[in-house]
Amino acid sequence: MVVSIEEVSSSLVREYLSRKGLKRTIACMDEEQPRTEASINNRSDLRQILHMEGLYKNNKVSLLVVFVPHRSFVEEETCSSQGIKSLPATDTPSTHNQTDFWRDCSESRKELPLNTPFHGTESFTGRESERKTESTQKIRTNRTRRGMMAAPIASTPQTVMEFIKLLLGSSSRFFSNEWRNQGFTFSDDLKYGIMQNKGGPCGVLAAVQACLLKKLLFESADSSVTGLQRLRPSSATRTQCLVLAAAEVLWRAGEEKQATVAIHSERNHFIPTGHYKAEGVLEKFESGALSCILLTISAVLSRSVEKIREDMDVPTTSLIGAHGYCTQELVNLLLCGHAVSNVFDNDMELDSGNGNLTLLKGIKGRCDIGLLSLFEHYNICKVGTYLQTPHFPIWVVCSESHFSVLFSLQRELLTNQDRAQEFDLYYYDGLANQQEEIRLTVCTWKDASVSWNDTEPIL
């Protein structure tokens, strides 16, 4: 049976929704994407198409999706020793099509055994040479789709322990309830704002919020909406911007070459042994919608544990510190794609005595989103120009143990710094339960200090 990848993806989504009991969602999907004669409506047929009869019996699967760009996959050939149908040829992600990137995360999930080999190259089984079928590449002219391939990442107690040590600092620590219960929910009052339930994961939320605002304010396809109107988005628009922001964060963490998305599972994939105790999350990943934990795990997988350790000044540093707070390394990973420990420009060498040098690693280049820190006021750190003057007038603000967002509606704010001007900055704190916008009007004079003219809410 030869079917298109779209029909397989749709049937997988319908199967997932059916198992979750989401009948209304299935009805909406059937309305937007009606079933055809080629649709797969039988679970047995679906397992047969995916060559999963044996896996279904053994009940040993992995639910991680690895996205690999610049790959040409063959629609009618089988990939690896498991006989999984390969995906159509795809192109490199573009800024305007990152929605498709994230949509494909859920539509193209494959369930594979934990021991399936994946070498990151175009390796096909002997069937290809035996049949000698000419490879076909499906050219897509209507829209650019993401380069991606479903493949497992071996989930073992050892690899999970490395994850926990990197994330939490110790294999005996668990994710706090503040992290477990934190998703991406919008405010009813400020339509663009992501709400934070309790303290802890504010660094992740602020980074995603900043990227969301970049999409909403400066990269929106609707040119008719300008100024303050962009801060009044529809539900569809803000959801799309959230999707684009999350995709951008992971794509940047993967050095714009690949991105890995962690998808939740309903079952454990291994039995905890040795010093590792069941954590309740990393054995199956968090259930439910996109959460702070899933996004953080996905960013780590996209960058890789090894590269993140190399980024840090001290390789044993964790991404989540005391009391569940995000470290600077985690915020830098989400904002800049590198989990460096400092916020100054480039690297710095310090003389440690006896001819020894200590390398302190900083920001490698100008970022799209900036960062400002209250610690600089205390002379504890120095924020470099790469973060002070980002490409877009949006800054994540570090005020001791909390992160929030400061932004402007004027892109030219960063290009006209030499002339006197008056401009507005907007402040958003997802933990403050803001019901109205906070606007700061700033007057600047050349060769003079900045004066805060007024602080008032916008009704």
TrEMBL record:
User: Which residue intervals define the domain Deubiquitinating enzyme MINDY-3/4 conserved in the entry?
Assistant: 164-454
Question: Which reaction is the catalytic activity of this chain?
Answer: Thiol-dependent hydrolysis of ester, thioester, amide, peptide and isopeptide bonds formed by the C-terminal Gly of ubiquitin (a 76-residue protein attached to proteins as an intracellular targeting signal)
Q: Which domain of life is it from?
A: Eukaryota
Q: Which residues form a coiled coil?
A: none
- What GO molecular function terms would the record report? cysteine-type deubiquitinase activity; K48-linked deubiquitinase activity
Could you tell me the keywords of this UniProt record? Hydrolase, Protease, Thiol protease, Ubl conjugation pathway
Which E.C. number(s) belong to this protein? 3.4.19.12
Compositional bias annotation for Basic and acidic residues = 125-137
**UniProt function note:** Probable hydrolase that can remove 'Lys-48'-linked conjugated ubiquitin from proteins. Hydrolase that can remove 'Lys-48'-linked conjugated ubiquitin from proteins.
Query: What's the protein name?
Result: Ubiquitin carboxyl-terminal hydrolase MINDY
Classification lineage: Eukaryota, Metazoa, Chordata, Craniata, Vertebrata
